[in-house]
Fold these 2 entries.
Entry 1:
Amino acid sequence: MAQRRSTIYLGVTATLVLLLVGMFLYASNVVRTSRPLFARKTALVRQLQLTDLCLFTEASYTRHVSMTDISTPFQDSPMSLEHFPTGALVEPPFHLVRNHGQRD
Amino acid sequence: MISVRDVSKIFNAGHPNEFTALHRVSLNLPLHETTVLKGPSGSGKTTLLGLIGCMARPTTGRIFVNELEITSLPERFLTEIRRSTFGFIFQQVNLIKGISALENVMIPAYPTGEKHSLLRARAMEKLGMFNLDMRAAARIECLSGGEAQRVAIARALINNPAIIIADEPTAHLDSTLSREFMGIIKELKSEGVTIILASHDPIVYDSDVADRVVEMRDGKVIKGGKRP
Amino acid sequence: MANVIEHHRHIIDFTLSSLLRRKGKNGALLLVYAVIVFILASVLFFSHALRREANLALSESPEIIVQRTMAGRYQTVPIFWSDRIRTINGVISVRPRLWGYQYDSVFQANYTLTVPAEHPPEPGSIDIGSGISRMRGAYPGDIISFAGHDGLPRSFTIRNVIDHESELLTSDLILLSDKDYRDFSGIPADQATDLTLRVRNPREYSTIAEKITRMFPEARPILRTEILRTYDALFGWRSGLIIVIFSAAIFAFAVFAWDKATGLSAEERREIGILKAVGWETSDILLMKFWEGIVLSLTAFLVGTILAYAHVFYTSVALFAPVLKGWSTLYPVFRLTPFIDLGQVATLFFLTVVPYTVTTIIPSWRAATIDPDAVMR
């Protein structure tokens, strides 16, 4: 007869668990060895005086999230209903939310 | 010896639909014999079988199996005894659809945690007894009525029970299959298995296999048993 | 012990046979469940890795940035501000920063032009981000020209392409010299885009910021701590919003799963009766239901999480890319460092495996406690 069903199931599950655990171990190893990479990145940030990730380049307030200001509702708003698609993904900068209260 | 002492079973006690299924029944059934409980439907046969087979508890009275009082045992022990001592054959075959005959036969032994290879070999052996080894992998719904009945018997035998309990086993079988069934019972009897059948089918109670015929009516034993 | 294991394995055998009877339905359930876990895990992995990335990389960004607004709009900052601000106690250095945007109408892309604080390119040459290089097919030695503020084109020789490894920070950058940028953008020599400050003690940030706004009421200081917190919360409520929308789908699934898990059919009830009658205990029935829940939900969790990991860290969230790109034509190609929050994974586990398993077990509790003689009646 073929393998018992429980053997197959437990085997598959054990493989998946090992894969998951292996993945996490591998990931933590990559993180550990990426220290020089981050040293290079921070040096670059220092050299170029960067303030933001270059993730969304479609609008100024998504390109430089932390640099946007509260006056822009009359331009392209960090708090108005979204005009640019990626604007729906990012949160307005922390200090705006704190200093100017909730969106109304 | 299976000893039933002054047993009553009342369903829905205290409700308007209260119903007395058994009324002060006393009965002694020697081991290694075949007993047939005979009587019309509603006479309390099935209830009595259920009580003897540790499936339910009597409202009053006691039941002893080999000097062991089973009526006061907690459920876990009752299940344990039911599993190890009794094999059940029901009116409907009560097999689980969609899975193989072999697995159906093995099911009663699953809770014991017995080694799979041993269990499987024994299940094949039981199926072999009824020439069903070729059908072991077949799903239940692919079996004929007679095959299904024999699988159900093989299932009753998987834990090598000392006592077989069969409730109206021939109710859904034609005469040929019913006789075939009694043939199997005879064989089991010759191996020393205690058999208790409930039936109102003449093929069963008139069969020469029956050592004792106990007649029941309205929850009372009216003939063949030890009267109170 | 061997007995206990064998007992469980028998029950798993039975559960699997039982599940395989409805291959289509259970298969679909498993698939939908795995997809849901996959999407949830992808969002969690991605936003966490990005947050950590931002937090580590931007830990060296300017400590305080001073901007100026007039009539609610950004204005350039007069450079003389820096001399005044430098007099504030605790300020180590003040430096005018020059940067701005440039829209490239040919490629319909936005570039960020910036003048590096250290090692700027020679006048007439520029460094470009690898995103721009890739998009325009431009390499060191090539010449690029842009129209400046006065409409006249200016040509620059590409000196360098910024290393690909920092693409998530520099993809759209064009680095140029102070002189070139002033000429190009028309910012007068006594003005800067904003000012960046180095401060002796991080605890003085807010005091210094306060002093600056008292000195120049139109000044708008931004602290590094605020930048970092912005990125901490980058996918905060908005991605929370996505999860809210997504939760509609989860809810629909929950209803489906609830129905599947709780709706014990008459057939299932009968089977439980048979199992009880042939010698199964109540606990065996519950064990079977437990495994039924585990088989589906644990498999879905494992498959979904593993695929999500591959999706986020190997394909750079390829499936989310259309959403992340929006209308931008310049999108960084990045490989995220696999920062994983095991707490999040554990939460995901408890949110997916436990409820499903519990909803499978609970309703069968009642059926499991029926009298074994029920099938005889």
Note: Residues 60-100 of chain A form one domain.
Entry 2:
Amino acid sequence: MSGGKLFGAVSPLQTIELVQQDLFPSTSNVPTTNDINAYAYLVTILHHSRVSDSHKAFIRNGVQWLNEESIKMYKKTYMQLLSQERQNVLKNIAKYRWGENWIDTILTYIFEAMLGDPIYGGNKNQAGWKWLHHKGGNPRPTKALV
Amino acid sequence: MKYDVCIIGSGAGGAPIAYELSNAGFHVVVLEKGNHYREEDFSKDELAVSRRDMFTPLLKEEQHIINERNKDGSITRYEGSEYDWSFWNGSMVGGSSNLMSGFFHRMKPNDFRLKSVYGEIKGANVVDWPISYEDLEPYYAKVEKIIGVSGVVTKHKFAEPRSSLEFPYPALEVNGVTKWFDASCKILGFESIHTPRAILSQGALGRSGCSYSNFCGSYGCATGAKGSASAALLQKCKAKIVPEAFVYKLQSDATKIISAHYYDKDLKSHAIEARIFVVAAQAIESSRLLLNSKNKYFPNGIANNNGQVGKNLIFSAGGVGEGRFHFDSLTKTQQEELMQPGLFLNRSLQDWYEYKDADKSYKGGTIDFLFEHANIISRAKREFYDANGNIMWGTALQKKIHKTLTTSRVLTFEVFNDWLPTDYCNVSVDKKLQDKYGVPVGVINLYGHPHDLKVGSFLAEKAKKVLENMGAKEISASISASPPPNLVAGGCRFANDARNSVLDVNCKAHELDNLYVTDASFMPTGGSVPYTWTIYANSFRVADHIVKKL
């Protein structure tokens, strides 16, 4: 997925899915964002009963600000950029306070998906825990809190 | 129905009253704001417990105002929901005792006479307690037996007198690193203390022993080994427990409480009548309830005609520190010892519970050592930034996290010293902001006395020496005036003089005949240890008094 979509025809969530892959690329012996359902997990967070509305708005607004930076740098939206260009945009927004916080937030939910209990849908077969040699605590939850 | 005793709050302050009074044959009702969880409801779900804070209220529904006092005397006001600043602990049957780590230390005899022994400190409202260590000792001993304290009694220069030789329950198993700690203390001339824990190492008291799940503090205990107020007391008595009951007002006449009014989960109001009322809703919330319960007899709030409710709020001063052990400086055997999951370190230092500086004696404190929490998400998150503080991502971040989490482990320490009571640290209620029940929210006016930082920093330097000797790297400490929300006390001091306190020596309100406050609110000073053991012990002491009174 390296772009080609028209601005406006792309949902913020599709952009976030691409950002997730850019922040946590597919690497040998490491679970991928696809393996851990990072996108679906973020959608859960955006509807979570215990995540504040202002935090949800920050996640969504960050996409708009990301695209504004992307257009400023390359006159294209983030999803229309090549891989290296997208990395340059991420490096640029990381210089801003909002950008650093937004990247931290997106990364946090990637790691929550990968290292949370498998009942949440990520961390399939405890792949994330196995990667970091972690043993989950017992008893495990029987119901996800959403 | 009119109960003999109505208790508001089911944690370490309320549950001993419920246990003792109901077992003595009295009709007791406990009103608890939170849900009723039992052992089978507790799991090690990091996302729910630690990331989504499932055991505390949503801040958009219930919050505090925090007024921070700046160096120039100005105040900065924070709304908890806006700044994600929470002072809630465990809103649940058994309260935050469900989530404690159970590091149990008694206060020392000198903690009860801080002013007499160490003198006044400018700007601090230090006073002696109206009771002595000897008065409370039998109840510390009672807690050991009923709540279940395990460990090995260590003789050291500040060891408090005990009425029994040993703890009633054998010590928990310890990690191999514990012997590294002991060896370093020996070299340094420090006295390594076996940390007593409110955790049963073996089945006893109708409860199971510890399963060494590796997820203890912050989590509810699924075996009942942890001495929570729920597992150890409320499940062992016939007191009626009403969960999801938020008490918003106490109704009184001139001399006694008549009824407690609460909202259920559907916001329906109910009233409970009783002969005696015991408030134990956690220090901040207990003061808030009294301040919000105004009537013509008490226009400034129940038991507050002397203007003392909410005053002299204290926390535990001190802070935290850590050091990291890397595989590359360890033998294979040491690496295996380091990474043993589940087992505890269980070591403390109290060598400087009192110390001298320029020939003057100062009150010092306690240092507990423990492994970094096993929560894997928070451990991964702390690796997001490079040495220069820049955020990382991509394969560089993946490699950093993998290397750090699989070939090193952090040993942490927690410093506990007195948070000096002052005129600037107290609880009030807000004039405008209300919670979801339509009740004015509590205001926490924060101020830490500079002396607290001095003592905390002194102790942290000692702790760092141990880590250094053990071979840890990246050693650091953070001592600040930031209040730990789970270590809060004061607001309704007990004393003999009604002019400068809320409660009498039995924790009964001076101004009312049938109102008691038995959470940590009563404490004029906090000692230099975690509060829970003292809260339990004092509540058992007050229970004896109430039994005699009834």
Note: DSSP finds six helices and no strands in chain A.
